[in-house]
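Obj.: predict assembly geometry.
Materials: sequence records (below).
Method: joint structure prediction, all chains together.
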Amino acid sequence: MPVITCIDDLKRIYERRVPRMFYDYAESGSWTEQTFRENSSDFDDIYLRQRVAVDMSGRSTASQMIGQDVSMPVALAPVGLTGMQCADGEIKAARAAEKFGVPFTLSTMSINSIEDVAEATTKPFWFQLYTMRDTDYVSRLIERARAANCSALVITLDLQILGQRHKDLKNGLSAPPKLTAKTIANLMTKWSWGIEMLGAKRRNFGNIVGHVDGISDAANLGAWTAEQFDPTLDWDKIAKIKEQWGGKVILKGILDAEDAKMALKVGADAIIVSNHGGRQLDGALSSIRALPSILEAVGDQVEVHLDSGIRSGQDVLKAVAMGAQGTYIGRAFVYGLGAMGQKGVETALEVIHKELDVSMALCGRQKVSDLDRDILLIPENFEGRWQS
Ligand SMILES: Cc1cc2nc3c(=O)[nH]c(=O)nc-3n(C[C@H](O)[C@H](O)[C@H](O)COP(=O)(O)O)c2cc1C
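Observations (raw structure tokens):
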């Protein structure tokens, strides 16, 4: 068994183990992938202030997100088709999150259903909602999430229309994979993935198949998306969904201070500064670069979370020290899952926890609540000065 010391180690194993189609699906951004790349590289522009001779005993990474205790300010982001990266992937990731004491967010586009995950876990998880044209279906999804005791609804706002990722089109991405000559040739080299997948509880979209009438091609994500995601979603509709849910609501995909103010107006419990991991609007700012202006606009009135580009505990530290109350990892946990199933997700969380803990200590801080911008060296004009 190789020694895993960083998220990149998991990524290397993941790449070897999982069919190319699903590796490419995760490891892509839209169009030129500029935003996808900068989501991570912009973290490198921020430096940490090393401080010494500070008592570092009794440290803790424990914190809270939307009033819930978390062992570190890191949740698992909603990731569609997680159950194609590894058999029963959502169940395994949810169990790893529960064991580690961080929130798990189940995607609408998951393979394991809401009920599958509820049955396999003991603590409430969060459910991510995509709004669909079929409002009855959306209502039923909300009711299913309620019945499963989900403790927050994460409404994704940045995918009314799908960003183009070249590789998915070229690979003919689908769940389960369509057996073309190219796919079969690749699957022949991924035996362990395939054998496990034969025993999986499900191999298609568990929240959709069997719950919606008249889907023309449920196996084809692109076609289904084009048909079903609601292009008319607006703030009034968001307010109505919030009312229907009645519990905690997190609005995901905010990248602009004006939208953050609207989110505040509809009464979000938290917002996630996110560009969907660079998978939607290519050419948009990285999340970490967009964070300061959003914090300035609404940071004292609503909890601000961040995702996109986080690959280490140092990235988490930078986002939290800048003012985010919590962060999410998408690809970083997918690498672990694809590499080694539940154990791999646990390893990804352990790696990030250790990096966060040690970096915090070397910055002279003992607790997450002690973190502030004072530990960061942020270049002047990091947020940019844009012409109006
Ligand atoms: C393969 C993949 C699938 C995703 N599917 C969803 C989804 O179904 N719903 C959603 O709200 N976000 C989805 N996202 C976006 C993630 O929730 C999150 O915003 C993003 O992964 C954060 O960037 P990171 O991967 O760099 O951590 C997906 C991301 C990836 C990589």
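Conclusions so far: Residues 7-45+61-361 form a domain with the TIM Barrel fold (CATH 3.20.20.70).
To do: check interface contacts against the pulldown list.
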